Amino acid sequence: MSEAQDLSLFVRHPSEGVAAMDLVVDGVFCGACIATIEKGLRRQDGVRGARVNLASKRVTVEWDDGALEPPAILERLEALGYPAFPFASGAVDSVEMQAEKRLLRCLGVAAFGAMNVMLLSVSLWAGADSDPNSATRDLFHWLSALVALPTAAYAGLPFFESAAKALRARSLNMDVPISLGVVLALGMSVVQTLAHERDAYFDSAVMLLMFLLAGRFLDQRMRRRTRDFALNLSAIRADRAVKLFEGGEARETPIGAIRPGDLVLVRAGERVAVDGTVEDGRSDIDQSLVTGETAPTAVSPGASVYAGTVNMSGALRVRVQSAASGTLLDEVNGLLVRAVEQRSSYVQLADRATRLYVPVVHVTALATFLGWLALGAGWQQSLIVAITVLIITCPCALGLAVPAVQVVAAGALFRRGLILNSGEALERLAEADTVVFDKTGTLTQPRPTLANAADIEAADLALAGSLALSSRHPLARAVAEASGAREPIAAEEVPGQGVSALHCGERVRLGSVAWCEAEAEAAPVAAAWPDASLIALRTPERVVVFAVRQLLRPDASAVIADVARNHEIEILSGDREPAVALVARELGVSRFEAGLKPADKIARLKALAFAGKRALMVGDGLNDAPALAAAHVSISPISAAHIAQAQADALFLGERLQPVADALRLSARARRLMVENLWLSAIYNMVAVPLAILGFATPLIAALAMSGSSILVTVNALRARSAGAPRR
Amino acid sequence: MNVLVYLVPLALALGALGLAAFLWALKHGQFEDLDGAAWRAISDDDLPEDERH
Lengths: 728, 53
Prior knowledge:
The complex is a heterodimer. By secondary structure, chain A is an alpha+beta fold.
């Protein structure tokens, strides 16, 4: 690549005369990497400083503005052995970071408050209030109030704000009873202290905040970490396009800086990075990421090409356009909008529990108040008992029951190579009873591989491999990879046809079947591998035909067999019937449909939903995007088209299909644990609430019950981590 | 019980000191790269070339 790179999109200016850029660096693992990168960059003239963040695998470089060109930094890192990718640290990133920092600050303040209030409370429980004139007790209560009131006012803000937001929208969330409980507990405690009474609940209120903040902080951090990771991947995968400027200058430009109407150059063997129409040039395009069809399509000026497809043979000039009417992209976008609109809003387990819980608790408290009043207690005492009921039922365990499981399960899935895009994905995954797979790129590997290597003599394969090394054609690359050839033969490339060379004084050719005049030899190979693309090697003595196809993922059969035990399995593909039938037979899947358009896939999913099934859709193509949005829950491989990834509830990494099976198993277990935790906190309430209603709940009992139940559900949630031994 | 007059403020002050230290550390990004900090502690960049091991 000789073009200059335009990186201005990524450069920040933190202060006058200083430029800075954030880079994702793959492969930093230890202190040695940190030292190499930081020292190596600082040695470069003009660089002011470099700082590696090992946790997020990013480097921030600062340099004197104008002292060097940004691409020089990438080259420097490449030379150090760490390929880097520029990264636009967006506004979303800093907002999330601020939210996390704020929660941590609140947690710190709440922990400080809880420690000091407990210090005072424990001494009271231990006998300091045996003082007959209660002067010491009052002093300790006032000191507690002095610490607890400002603490709650600050650390409770995230809850108060969220509760106010929910109330303004005329709905209830978990933060409403939390806020109410905290405010009432504090208010009542102040009144009790003024009246020189014995019981004050400053400690319960502050401890409640601390436990809940700990849960929220962990939840937020887990989310940010998985999102950071996804952002890093997108930076590494970020496509660039060679933009052609007027006057003929070509410059490699990040895709974010390309606008509709620009002209880009797509060379043979490159991935098309934009949607557009061909202005100039002829080529074959591998559309498998778009339509699922594995056979290449010929394009000429006027044809539409889509981002994610691979240009196989000739160079193309492409005029960039956003979705034009009448193209596949337009159709997909239309279907997508409708699928998203029709998607029913999912009610999460925690929300369902809240809807049940909030009215029950408030009615119980009210009934307690009226009951005590009716039995002849003063209204003041009745009110105190009613508020105690509210405090003791305060949803400490309930607030932790679901998020704790989510954090632990999402962490366990992350380690197994699955990134959850949304929190509710876990619950919806657990409900899936049917799994619908796309074929191309999902069940098969995204890159083509030589299929009939066993039928080819080693010498022929070696020769073909050496020839293939001098071509950028994806099929040629597959042959070169299979042969393990290292030394290219000097060959000339015939655009759109193949390569030819003089080898040991003889003319040899590697290229399309027609160009090598190998139709006769190709017929039996085509029959044996109906979904393969063929290329041929022609030497004066013989003709060899290579079948290159997308192989199944290495563990596909095992995973499908595993998943099939508890789920129904279907394959819906846009590819031709024989190719799909072959894969279905290999995997032992009896239900498959081939040649489907995006609308057909949605229709099939609707039929499944109508029959009461909840479908997990696993797909990667542009054509799968509407189906991914329409399904109950969806997963995409990380190699998927951007538009598909944006719709999927989760992404899986790597060549193996195992993360899909893990996701199903772990999510089922996580859901079981969530329900278990909700029951645990319900049982706790069944024991504690009668005590509170009868007026036996002292601050000591409240504090013990609250921390006891919180710890119980948290420990139970940790079990989500070890969901059976991972199968290797 | 007169001992409380200075013990309680002392306890609160110590706690507040800890809180202040935590907030300072948070503000200055001490928790932003927990993995890297572990490695930086054992790097001996600050020593002259001949004293490194």
